[in-house]
Amino acid sequence: MRIACLHTVASHQSTFSELFAREAPEAGVVHVVREDLLAQAQVGGLHAITEEVMEALGALGQADAILCTCSTLGPLVDTIQNRKYIRIDRPAMEAAVIHGAKPMLALCLESTRAASLDLLEEVGEGALTPTVHMCEDAWPFFVEGDSDGFADAISGSIAQAVGGHDCVILGQASMAVAATQLKGLGIPVVATPERAVARTIAVATT
Questions:
Q1: Are 116 and 107 in contact (CB under 8 A)?
Q2: Rounded to an integer, what distance in angstroms lies between the CA atom of residue 120 and that of residue 133?
Q3: Is the pTM of this model over 0.85?
Q4: What pLDDT does residue 190 have?
Q5: Where are the alpha helices (H) located in 49-168, listed in sequence order?
Q6: How many C-beta neighbours within 10 Å does residue 145 have?
Q7: Helix/strand/coil percent split, the chain, to 5
Q8: C-alpha dihedral over 6, 10, 15, 20, to 10 degrees?
Q9: Would you state the pLDDT for residue 52?
Q10: Shared-domain flag, residues 99 and 81
Q11: CATH number for the domain including 17?
């Protein structure tokens, strides 16, 4: 089984290495880190990096399944229209819709807002009334490598705004660190990494 991952955050390499090692220890996993792609997308939008992303994903095409772990790049993954290319947030979005019509979509980066919300509305087939909640003060902690501070900032921000929602979706892979702290909310909290890894393994083995 050959699996490839395209990351735009360097720390995701270790996160997903551990997940794949746990769930599919027999798999050969290749990781490619392209932090420049996210940086460019934040400045110029997806249209500015379409060609580079297609080249990066295409170079991994010999794998049985290719996982893009950057939610900002998700719409470009979808344009390939090949089931072996998996966008990080689709399995989580599909899981979240079963919990009710009023999900909270929590994000840290403005660059992924449109991509994530469009996907949620797609999988919800028009039956959802989602709220996008920006954890605006959290991302600097991630950039500084302060995982605990990042998780605290996310969980604190969400806890103040969660009332009236059926579930919380942690829309970026990095935000999964806050999932444990959010268990006391009384509603489901859906993170992306483990579901994406399970989907990638399923695709790679069929």
A1: yes
A2: 14
A3: yes
A4: 97
A5: 50-58, 74-79, 90-96, 113-123, 139-143, 147-161
A6: 9
A7: 55, 15, 30
A8: 30
A9: 95
A10: no
A11: 3.40.50.1860
Distance CA 11, CA 74 (A): 19
Q: Are residues 95 and 42 in the same domain?
A: no
**DSSP-based three-state secondary structure for 8:** coil
Q: How many domains does the chain have?
A: 2
**110 lies in the same domain as 153:** yes
Q: Quote the pLDDT of residue 22.
A: 97
Rounded to 10 degrees, the C-alpha dihedral 200/124/176/8 comes to 60
Tokens read off for 34: 């392209």
Q: Report the pLDDT value the prediction gives residue 84, as an integer from 0 to 100.
A: 97
103 shares its domain with 75: no
Specify the pairing of strand 28-33 against strand 2-7. parallel
- Domain shared by 106 and 132, yes or no: yes
Q: Give me the amino acid identity at 186.
A: G
Give the residue ranges of the chain where pLDDT is below 50.
none
One-letter amino acid at 78 equals: D
pLDDT for res 152? 97
Q: What is the pLDDT of residues 60-80, one digit of tens each?
A: 999 999 999 999 999 999 999
CA distance 95 to 167: 11
Whether residue 131 is found in the same domain as residue 76: no
End-to-end Cα spacing for the chain: 10
- One domain, residues 79 and 95: no
186 and 199 together in one domain: no
Residue-number span of the structural domain to which 200 is assigned: 2-87+194-204
